[in-house]
Protein 1
Amino acid sequence: MTQIIDGKAFATKLRAEIAAEVATLSYKPGLAVVLVGEDPASKVYVANKAKQTVEVGMNSFEHRLPADTTQEQLLALVSQLNADPAVHGILVQLPLPKHLDTESVIATISPEKDVDGLTVVNAGRLASGAEGLIPCTPLGCLLLLQDNISDMTGLHAVVIGRSNLVGKPVAQLLLQQNCTVTMAHSKTRDLPGLCRTADILVAAVGRPEMVKGDWVKPGAVVIDVGINRVPASEGKTKLVGDVAYAEAAPIAGKITPVPGGVGPMTIACLLRNTLTAAKRLEAAR
Ligand SMILES: NC(=O)C1=CN([C@@H]2O[C@H](COP(=O)(O)OP(=O)(O)OC[C@H]3O[C@@H](n4cnc5c(N)ncnc54)[C@H](OP(=O)(O)O)[C@@H]3O)[C@@H](O)[C@H]2O)C=CC1
Ligand SMILES: Nc1nc(=O)c2c([nH]1)NC[C@@H]1CN(c3ccc(C(=O)N[C@@H](CCC(=O)O)C(=O)O)cc3)C=[N+]21
């Protein structure tokens, strides 16, 4: 029988552990979230994050800026948050409006407050095995895999997608777990054949239900990172992953659903990173 990996339940447990630790602190960790523009999907995530941040006993600072915010204004806000002792974590919601330079905005975030793990410093720390802040979604994937596979040594992991936010850091983490890692992307030849050799298959592509059932090796552990909103019946929309779940689930050994898989873990890991950053910053004061 296929086992469904319940990311929602795992994330609830993780948040309870975070809340218990926050309650022992003499200060309140603070997370600042910056949202530029009116993207409705982003707004939902920001609202969810703010609610859960407060629930675990942290301060949530929301900065909603208009879509026509200038580069200078955004950089000034990030600098102000860098200097604010009540702020331990800074998250700038991506993607930014096209007129803004994402790279320079990320580069302005203090690496010690970079709870998304997106700065060059934290990416370098992850690649070299040093202690830093690990991107939330990849960290969530790792925690789910560790909870479901006692030892990943020697397993073949195929990661589809090579973004700085998801694919690359996932591959780094699985390499640290002694997996043999193959990174696949839009130029990969015979992707279905490659996927069929994967003991662990991570899909972070952004293409609804691209990974078909017959791409999955029987018994493989499938982690579906994709969050795609697609039309459903009666003019409504629904969320689907990058894996054709109905086809893949009976073949996989274990699989994450969408919603209720990696998504909730991302927010829990964001809170965990904020706690980690707060403890390090306060210890250094
Ligand atoms: N669950 C969560 O919490 C989160 C979910 N997401 C979701 O995860 C997905 C990936 O996000 P992100 O990494 O930011 O996306 P990006 O668009 O930055 O990267 C997508 C990657 O997929 C690859 N790709 C695209 N088309 C194909 C194809 N036909 N075959 C093989 N590879 C392909 C691209 O290859 P190339 O480099 O060659 O272009 C690229 O490396 C999205 O659905 C996103 O919504 C993202 C963040 C958090
Ligand atoms: N700087 C930055 N960091 C990010 O990590 C980041 C970002 N920008 N931009 C957008 C993407 C997307 N993302 C999600 C987080 C949680 C859910 C989530 O909680 N999903 C739930 C519910 C979704 C719903 O029902 O609406 C689920 O999958 O069960 C989804 C998507 C983080 N991202």
Protein 2
Amino acid sequence: MKPDLLHVQGLSRRFGGLVALRKLTFSVAQGEIVGLIGPNGAGKTTAFNVITGTIPPSAGTVRFDGRDISGGPPSRVVVAGLARTFQSASTYPAVSVAGNVYRGMLSRIAGSTVGRLVGRRGGMLAAAQVPAEIDAILRVTDLASWRDAPAGSLPYGLQKKLGIAVALATRPRMLLLDEPAAGLNHEECNDLARLLRLLRDEHGLTLLLVEHHMALVMELCQRIVVLVQGEKIAEGAPEDIRQNAAVIEAYLGAPDYAHA
Ligand SMILES: Nc1ncnc2c1ncn2[C@@H]1O[C@H](COP(=O)(O)OP(=O)(O)OP(=O)(O)O)[C@@H](O)[C@H]1O
């Protein structure tokens, strides 16, 4: 069993009187692909936001590679090696594909001006290496032929892939993907599954994904954590989750997800 890379312990988050996340505890081992699923409003995005330091937890801790990263800020979390993608394509539309990837490279040097000057995590950008690194990332993500195109001109599926490329440019050890398959057609979905497997198998990445596309989750994930109304109701291998009565009642049995 490989060691845990991410360990979330007793994580809670309130918004006024609403408890969006209640004492969530789970781990992701090095090299695993884990799915975080649940119905709309279950707290999945809140969990991502708290883990990546976008919003502070009301209680609980987030440890990454043994270090406490609870409460962010996001720039520190990225420098620690944890990157995320967003539900919607989140690139700069007027900037070229290569320029967007370069933006990701810059953020591995902590967000502050001082951080950029001193170059934390050995992340100093040697100017001569920048184009080669951008090309390597575009090759992995199959976007090389779009290198100089404005990001906004890419088909939606490729814009989402560019979001992954930007996250890869931070040189993460772990990627958190928020609904990477949303809005993708069948072929794009298969392509995404191939890319995510490649990132794990050949680039050693650990992945946590929030996703409503159950066929993709069941096929790709080694383990699944199920949230309902902010609480973890189940955790296990896909075949166990698929047959779990509480999960079927709260989520998988709902008409929208009946294809699972
Ligand atoms: N900034 C906020 N202020 C107030 N309430 C919030 C905020 N962010 C989320 N919530 C509430 O917290 C709960 C969990 O929301 P969250 O977006 O985390 O769910 P989700 O599982 O990601 O849902 P979806 O699958 O629809 O994206 C919801 O009731 C939501 O309305």
